[in-house]
Amino acid sequence: MAETRRDSTDLATGALLCVLGLGVGIYAGTHYRLGTPAAMGPGFFPAVLGGALTLLGLGIALAAWRRTAESPFPRPKLRALIAIASAVLAFALAIRPLGFVPASFLLVVIAAQADPSTRPVTAVLLAVALTGLAWVIFIAGLGMPLPAFNL
To answer: Which of 17, 41, 66 is the last residue of a domain?
Structure first.
């Protein structure tokens, strides 16, 4: 008879979400006034979110209980982890001395390296498009006080 393994990663994640949701809901319900849906108190929204998180975690855990895992522990993708962490770090270090536009461009070019099949031309074109979109949304549209360039 073949051994059946539960999807332990999703099962643990679902259980963790349930515990976190219950904790938030209980804390909000015991430390803040809940009020009613018509006249919400300060604890109403956190309590509802805690309940929703608990239900979401329960759904994930039950779905994981019904299926088997292909591998007990997935292999981490180190290239992607390093590329994304490096991109965020580069953005944080570059935004003040260079400005929003160069820092955003740098962020996208470095993050694109997470996928080994991304060609340099594709990364640059993606960076130009996303940087332009970010400038339109955050600086022109929302009026955030970020200098586009620090020259």
So the answer is: 66
Query: d(Cα 147, Cα 139) in Å, to the nearest integer?
Result: 8
Separation of alpha carbons 86 and 28, rounded Å: 37
| Residue pointed to by tokens 């608990």 | 54
Q: What is the pLDDT of residues 20-44, one digit of tens each?
A: 999 999 999 899 998 888 888 888 9
φ/ψ (deg, to 5) at 40:
-70, 140
Alpha helices (H) along the chain: 8-31, 44-66, 78-98, 100-111, 120-134
Assess whether 60 and 20 both reside in one domain: yes
Using a cut of 0.90, tell me whether the model's pTM lies above it: no
Task: Give the C-alpha distances (Å, rounded to integers) separating 116 from 17, 75, 87.
Answer: 33, 16, 15
What does the pLDDT look like over 131-145, one tens digit per residue?
999 999 999 998 888
Domain of 103 in residue numbering reads as 78-141
